[in-house]
Amino acid sequence: MVAGPLYHKGWYHLFYQYNPDSAIWGNITWGHAVSKDLIHWFYLPLAMVPDQWYDINGCWTGSATLLPDGRIVMLYTGSTNESVQVQNLAYPANLSDPLLLQWLKYPGNPVVVPPTGIEDNEFRDPTTAWLGPDGSWRITVGTRFNTTIGTALVFQTTNFSDYQLLDGVLHAVPGTGMWECVDFYPVAINGSVGLDTTALGPGIKHVLKASLDDTKVDHYAIGTYDMITDKWTPDNPEEDVGIGLKVDYGRYYASKTFFDQSKQRRILYGWVNETDTEADDLEKGWASIQTIPRSVLYDNKTGTHLLQWPVEEVESLRLNATVFKDVVVEAGSVVPLDIGTATQLDILAEFEIETLVSNSTEDEVSDCGDGAVDRSTYGPFGVLVIADDSLSELTPIYFRPLNISDGSLETYFCADETRSSKAPDVTKRVYGGKVPVLDDENYKMRVLVDHSVVESFGEGGRTVITSRVYPTEAIYGAARLFLFNNASGVNVKATLKIWEMNSAFIRPFPFEETLFQEMVAST
């Protein structure tokens, strides 16, 4: 899981929960990597290890806060020698070091312990702090009440070493269980730039996100933060945190954002864990990945959603492009796209539908159905990625517009993993969720394909799905790309631009190379 991402002196820093001894969970330390562009990464030495009584059972996730005077404070959860979850403070040993190689733990740790009435082992993951109008800082920490009420508590501090629990809660939702990896940040309703976590005032909404421990799903809602009472209220109570919108509708959890002050944007990281067996993970020697970083904006066209989009830097990996214009895909057909090897792709696709039936009754299929084989009048249609020539393995990414009782269309954006792999011991599910498609919009998707990971963005990123697949046939040169339309009542016209993608490098930092020493010295 991601911990404490930040930007400092020309480098993006990614800290993450890591077991240096094994590919399975345990001995949780903070790994550390840096990048100049969010795409190519260098591993650095471990940032923090569990070596004190207050974190001996694990240095769990946390968040960084960049103070106005240039200091960096890092708050993280430690699991104590008695497995009590407490919040601890750490800070860089040398702020002038662009790589932030050494971290010091505050000698007075822990700085926050579970309040009265909170379970000792259900109190974790402090957020980035924001500055209130009274001049004091606030953080929120996830917990639960009565085992079922997901809750975000608010603590106040002026020095990051002494904290006061504020009355009430930031927000709580019955029936959602333990909230972990809570994230809380502002978005500009004009949707143009990201905002620092401390931003307050008119023209701003606040996003509250929680990772639901019971379901291992990330949910968010958009609402209003009252800076006087320190309460947050969702715009739509029926779409509250944990019962409404998901950050990502696929294999995705424990996400975290940070404000990139160098480009005035908010960046989102998410964790993609494995669905194969622990034995498989031990054999390959690693487990779990991060998604491509995403920018996050408020969708001012709908007023109800965030827009997530791959950071612009990913486009630096684009190689040759192939364009297909106005390809007609008839109902019930599959069309191969001749692009050569299709293991690393960036796909932009737009679809228009041509109705073949004069009228249609309400569809019996609901949401994403049982996958792409489940036909309805207007869908599904989309692309088949990581497919082999015989279509014995394939992963459909598709839209499914559904006729509903009032005669309008309600559209779902979906990913079907059920035929993604012949491997027997992996999870293969149908993922997806509703996506708003406005009257003046066609059906648009962007799909990033990287061998065994597919990140799909519907309608500009209103609905996003991450798929972790394990192909056995559709690998390397055998992977292909197809269009498909399994609707019963429409033809589809598709226009696509598809880039073959280069590989990003991820390797140890070359401390011995003079060139990189000069790079560090110049930042």
TrEMBL record:
Pfam families: Glyco_hydro_32C, Glyco_hydro_32N. It comes from the Eukaryota. InterPro entries: ConA-like_dom_sf, Fructan_Metab_Enzymes, Glyco_hydro_32, Glyco_hydro_32_C, Glyco_hydro_32_N, Glyco_hydro_beta-prop_sf. Keywords: Glycosidase, Hydrolase. Coiled coil: none annotated. Residues 313-500 form the Glycosyl hydrolase family 32 C-terminal domain. SMART domains: Glyco_32. Residues 4-310 form the Glycosyl hydrolase family 32 N-terminal domain. One of its GO terms (molecular function) is hydrolase activity, hydrolyzing O-glycosyl compounds. GO terms for biological process: carbohydrate metabolic process. Belongs to the glycosyl hydrolase 32 family. This is Beta-fructofuranosidase, soluble isoenzyme I. It comes from Gossypium arboreum.
